[in-house]
Automatic annotation (TrEMBL):
It comes from the Bacteria. The lineage of its organism: Bacteria, Bacillati, Actinomycetota, Actinomycetes, Kitasatosporales. The keyword Kinase does not apply. Keywords: Hydrolase, Metal-binding. Belongs to the metallo-dependent hydrolases superfamily. Residues 258-284 are annotated as: Disordered. This is Hydrolase TatD.
Amino acid sequence: MRIFDPHIHMTSRTTDDYEAMHAAGVRAVVEPAFWLGQPRTSPESFYDYFDALLGWEPYRAAQFGIQHFCTIALNPKEANDPRCRPVLDELPRYLAKDRVVAVGEIGYDSMTPEEDEALALQLRLAIEHELPALVHTPHRDKVTGTRRTLDVVRESGIAPELVVLDHLNELTVGMVLDSGCWAGFSVYPRTKMSEDRMVTILQEHGAERMLVNSAADWGRSDPLKTRKTADAMLAAGFDDDTVDRVLWRNPVAFYGQSGRLDLDEPKPDEESSFQGNSVRRGGE
Ligand SMILES: [Zn+2]
């Protein structure tokens, strides 16, 4: 089974996770830029983070046989912090890079005027750079937040097929599919979405424009939730082709719209290093 996790924060994960993901069938991931759990105090720390998403992390992933791509943006939460706003001016420099396959994560956190502005501006950047957009939906007041997000997406003029609204649930999936956007689901151990609920949603809404991710990060999360969802689909009677469509061909189709998804197998090279550093330890 081949799996593409379209939303996972590998910066927060260990080499054990990479090994287990590869054993489970994961061959490609997209890591969206997001917030790190505590506020950043200057734009420069974003640039180091973006550079790591484009340098060290793809190197690390390749050592475990996994292709790593990323999305770049000022995340919704930190869009509210005036110290971080200058990041918006530097984004075009990053959006030109080869492994950047979308603008994201953008969207709403608390639905403030600052978030409105950052969301509209970054959707404009996606249009200018001819990139897809990964749009996070707020955890609180999800239905209202999703409806408002869809309004802003519509007003921006971006083609709906270039947009995924993520972290959806039973209450928001219908309106997102009706809009022509892609529907993303983050399958978590305790909250948001479970693999069984995901199976029911797929039974009710079909596999078209559906993306399943683990959204694993520094919080309670599980980087194998993509595989566990695939197994739950098979147990519920879905065929191999539909599982492959949801867990591989859909994310390839969505991010492939960037024109930058080069899926040649990475060749793990124990001898290689990244700027003098490697994942090896000592004299192994
Ligand atoms: Zn995320």
